[in-house]
């Protein structure tokens, strides 16, 4: 069925994307149709459910407590479009069409979009099937756990990039739009440092010593430095983190100022307020509002190479540490292949004041500066 739906799209055009609100509605109906009530297991944790076994041949179907609502036992080892699985999918499609507007707040158009509902149902069926297989096969279990771990780290980097983007607007108003051209093209999830709870390959004693020096709790996440990242990009990310946090704590301060770019007097006043707030921060990565503390970990756990970017966005030469590039032939090839930033990028010419950073972040950045002094040539 899904293959037929995909053939309906004009060649060369991407299939329509399932809206998040529809995906959530389909998920909830698919769980309810197998007798599972969705319950959140905790902060940002995926719900762990026990999926029903397929019914043996000749066994009667299950029903809910009301005695009339059919509950399905999908055949997790069969094709999604066959037998009971097809009936299961079509029942969910009917329930969304019938109740989607009132129960889930979907638009009438979306609730009646048969193709998108079926596509969302197929996608979530495959997710449930992977879980069922993981529950009954050791190799599948290991594969699923590895995927969940990878998804967790990807989500953390995505949240970090999204947080930095909230600092772009006040940053550009303070330093001027003309002087900050290109900044939006420098904040990407794959370029963010990892935040890991595992020990990695570092010496446990050294890692614990660095955690305690940062006054981080026992469950703190370790920030793993990207060694390829040059000083300019590191400074920019830290400064954006300051603006993002200050904007969150003092929301609306800039909204009262009419001019898009601040005047010299407005800029001086705003930066004075930022500096005053920063004096109370140990680091941009430590805050009472964060669920977990963060600390910078040992060099053994630092990441050496850039991550693969599925969107194939280039890493510009101006972002890469030249000292890192000189360490090996592999590094040099990455640097040589990297393009220069577009001519209209002015952000790399902007000298950012380091006194806007918390003390611990300044100290760390000075270490990057010393180890990567070639970047200042």
Give structural attributes:
three-stranded mixed β-sheet; disordered C terminus; two-stranded antiparallel sheet; 377 residues; mainly alpha; 46% helix
Notes on the structure:
- Residues 5-10 and 369-377 have low confidence and may be disordered.
- Strand 1 (62-63) and strand 2 form a beta hairpin.
- The protein is 46% helix and 4% strand.
- The protein is mainly α and 377 residues long.
- It contains 13 helices and 5 strands.
- Strands 3-4-5 form a 3-stranded mixed beta sheet. The chain has a two-stranded antiparallel ribbon with strand order 1-2.
- The chain starts with a helix and ends in a 6-residue tail after the last helix.
- The chain has helices spanning 2-7, 20-32, 83-104, 108-111, 114-136, 138-165, 168-175, 204-213, 231-249, 264-278, 322-325, 329-337, 359-371; strands spanning 62-63, 70-71, 194-196, 221-224, 294-296.
- Helix 3 crosses helix 5 and helix 9 (231-249) runs antiparallel to helix 13 (359-371).
Provide the fold topology.
Layout (H helix, E strand, L loop, with lengths): L1 H6 L12 H13 L29 E2 L6 E2 L11 H22 L3 H4 L2 H23 L1 H28 L2 H8 L18 E3 L7 H10 L7 E4 L6 H19 L14 H15 L15 E3 L25 H4 L3 H9 L21 H13 L6
Parallel strand pairs: 4-5
Antiparallel strand pairs: 1-2, 3-4
